[in-house]
Structure formats: structure tokens, C-alpha cells
Amino acid sequence: MIELLLVPFLEAAVRTATPLAFAALGELVAERAGVINLGLEGTIIAGCLGGAAGALLGGPALGFAGAALAGMLIASVFALFVVRIGTDQIITGTALTLLGLGITGTVFHVAPAVVGAGQVIPTTGPIAIPGLSAVPILGTALFRQPLATYALYLLVPALAWWMGRTHAGLALRAVGESPEAAAAAGLSPRRIRTVAILFSGLMGGLCGGTLVLAQVGAFNEGMSAGRGFIAIAIVVLGRWTPLGTAGAALVFGGAFALQYLFQSLGSSLPYQLFLALPYVLTLVLLAALRGRAAAPARLGR
Amino acid sequence: MDILVAFWDGAFGSTYAFWSATLVRATPLLLVGLAVALAFRAGILNIGAEGQLILGAIAAAAVALQLPPAPRVVMVPLMMLAGMAGGAVWAGIAALLRRRFGVLEVISTIMLNFVALAAVSWMVRGPLQEPTRVYPMSETFAAAARWPFLITGQRLHLGIVLGLLAAGALWFVLARTAVGFRIRAIGAGARAAQSAGGVEPERVAARVFLASGALAGLAGASEVGGVTWALYEGISPGHGYTAIAVALLARLDPRWVVVSAVFFGALEAGGASMQREAGVPAVAVQIVTATILLSVLAIAQWRNARRPVGAPE
After folding, report:
1. Roughly how many angstroms between the first and final C-alpha of chain A, as a whole number?
2. Of A82, B10, B191, B210, which has the fewest beta carbons less than 10 angstroms from its beta carbon?
């Protein structure tokens, strides 16, 4: 009985966590360079649209490429304003979220064929890894997932190594702590921040791509549903480290998956309680972990 | 061309378009724009006006629906107070999290926006649902809870008067009083505020945060009392986010927020008309809003760059 509930719950938790982890890891890199990208929500919804359009043209692979490209497009505007012109990060990000939601919503209404309204979008199904997926309880959750999830299993340790052990990773963190010192050491804070922002756009786009191509199988207006903002909270909860961020994403996946669990239990509690749960959880965890201690010193400036 | 004609007709094309579409849409934007301008002046990044507005709407609707019948002169002020209290409580959570636990208000207010959406979704399907329990909305308010119209035959209501009064009061407080000086000082930086003497930045910030929430909550009360006469799930189509553009275009000056709110009200009214007449989705207005925001940011930056170092703003 426990297994009957637990296995689908864990499977749903990992599945829901996957797009969140993509977006959060991208945001993590931007934040370590001192940039808080509140436009992430805009890059995600752009990624959703790019993913749907790409997949209709040439299957899931082109879909992911389209998603990444669309995300980077929004992020490049963000980089232009924040790094080149030097505008306020928070407000520029808010504007780009509005822009992303506005453009994708308009395309959805004006040219529904582009995003495949009423058509079947080619998607990637789960792939069971032989042997590992047969492990009781955790096997299905961890090893019967779409390719995107497996990509994260490789990306998270790679990112942790890159950030902690390479010169480039050190340069990234130096810019987040003190751009002046980094510049004095011969680095270009502007170039490093631009690259970090573009990477966050790439990952935000892939978050959207995963949503469309590995989960929903369709594009809908506003389907990013606040994931960009949750991803930003995940980075804080993950204490600005790749492993912590991945772990925090999983916690959120679990919070979302609780909805399915309680539905299958036939709970009489209002479902809006579970809709609100991930956000309330964020607030509680942020308060419990006491804010900014581990934040890059020059985040947002 | 048809699109532009439809836009113009919807926003300014007739007296009805101006008084009953543009200004009615400008009303919540004015109040929420002031809420954002006030918070930003004090350096508080309140991105949560959306949630505070929703809580204000819930509180005002609860008063209108749950209290025993009362005459309008009692009911309408009660709804205003309830709306302000609802918004202030919602902002108060973020203010508390900031002061006691060091949680960035940018993140907490956005999270609270989503909780507010869940809350209104529950209200219109639970405690405040209409009696037949079919539609996700509340019962329509009794006549005494409907805010008075200002002009016969037009939909412009009391809310805009509140907005104009609030704009005047806010301008006076910010520009002419010691409290306003403190608020501007903490906006310029906590260190500047301390050196200005007698200012406790965190305490002032918390109070400004509550006042900002109250203004946004009042906008929510004004929407249910003056426009919809019932609580709906989609009570705010993103007013709290548009308000950031409203406030910034006005350069955070309450007097200019009035002008900028009317401008965005016209944009929304014209956008709705474009959708009806020319089939352009209303969401396209968000592209315009975002473009305006980015332009304002860029222009402000270029101005700063041309100013000699050390010159006052």
C-alpha cells in the first residue's frame, strides 16, 4: 500500500523538479556573477514557445534547440540592458518577464498554428535505464524519467566541479563578490556577467523546453506559471551551490507532487491549499535559513 | 490601421470610452502605482502589490457579503478600511520576514502573490461562493455595498477620488514633511539615513511597507466595490505588475503617477477594444508595457551618465 502511493509520489517529485532544476541552475550561475535575473520567468515561457515551435518543425531535438535559443534571446536583451546600459536588475527583469509573457501570449492567440494548438507536439517519453530502474521504490523515481532528467544527473556534478575547481568558475565567483577586484586581476566583469546571463537564458529556455517536450506535450499561454520565481527562491534555499540547488529543486518537486498524493488519497482539504504549499514552504524555509548569509556580496548591484 | 482606430476608439474615441473605460481602468492603476512608488521611494522592492490588491479585494468583499445590511455611508467606508487592512496584512508578512529573518522582499512578495491567487481561488469556491455553488464567484453585492458613480450614465466611480486624494496626500508627505524626508533618506541608503540623524531605517521601512500594502489593498476594494460588485478569481489582470511601470514612468513622483496611470488606463482600454474590434489579443498590451519600462530605464541611465560625477539628482 505504501509503495503504491510512494512510488508515484517520488516519480512525480523528480519529474516536477526537473524543469525547476534547469531554471534554478541557470539562475545560480547568473547570481554567482552578481546578477539576479528576475526575467527568468520570461525566458522560461519563451523556451516553452521555442520548444513547441521547434518540435513541430523537426521533432523533439529541434524543439530543445528552439527552446534554448528562445531563452537566450530574452536573456540577451536582459544582458544588453543590465550589463551594457547598467539598468536596475530587478526592474529590468520584471520588464522582461512581462515581455516574454506578452510576446508568447500574443503569438498563441494570433498564430496558434506556430505553437501547435490542436496538434500533437512530438515529445520525449520516459526511458527506463535497464537494471537501475528495477531498484525498489527509488528505481522508478530516479531511472524511469525523460532524457532531460538524466542530463541533470551529469550537469549538477559537472557544474559543482566547474564552479569550485576551475579558473573560469573562480572568475565567475570573483565577479559576484567584487567586480572591482576581479577587474584589477585582469578579468572582464562585463563579459563574464554577459556569459553568465546567457547561460541562465539557455537553462531557462531548456526548463521551458522540458515542460513542453517531456511533460505537457502542448503550449499554453502562461504555462510557466511562476516557475522562474520559484527557481530564484530555490537558489537561495540551495545556498548558492549546485548540489544545494539541485536538492532544493527536489524539495519543491516534492511539494508540488503532494497535490497528486493527496488527490489519490481522496483528501477533503481544498486543493488550493496544495497550490499554495510550495510558495508557503519557500517563505518558511527562507525564514528558517535566515536570508542572505551565503549570498554573493554584490548580488543585484 | 484598423487596429489603431480600434485602439483610439476604445481609449479616447467617445466620452463613454474616456470616462467609463480609460478612467475606470486607470483607477486601480493609480492606487497600486502610488503603492509601488511609495515603496520604491523608500528602497523597498515591493513586487507584491498584486497579492496585496487581491487580499484587499477579498477583505472588502467579505465585509460587503458577510456583515449585516447597513446603509451605504457605513458600508463603503468599512469596505475601504477592510481593503486597506487586507493589503497591509499581506505586506506585513513580507515586512516581518524582511525585518526579523532577513528574507529579501523581492522573493517573499512574489511568493505571496501566488499564495494570494490560491486564496482567492479558494474563497470563490469555498467561504464566499455564490449560494447556488455553481460558479467560481461570490454573490453580487447588495446596493449599499456598491460604490457610488460620479457621473450619471458613466461607470467612473468613487475609487478615482480616493486615488487622487491619495496622490495629493502622498506628494505632500513625501515632499513637505519630516516623515517624507526620512522615507527619502532610507531610499537613498540606510547609511545616509543614519547620518541624517534620528532615523531608524528598518522601522521606517516596515511602516512604509505596510502603507504601500494598504494602498494596494484599497485598489482591490475599489475594484470589487466600484467595478465588479462581486469577487472573482481574475479580479486583477496583473495590475500589480503594470503598477511598476506606472510608478517608474512617473519617476516615482505621486503627481506624475496620476498622469501615468491614465496613460496606462488608456493603453488597457484601447487594448481591450483592439481585441473586440480587430482581433489583436489584449495580452499584446504587455509587450507595450514592457517596452515602455525598458525605455524609461535606459533613458534614466543615459541621463545619469551625462550628469557630472557627484552632482545631485
Report:
1. 52
2. B191
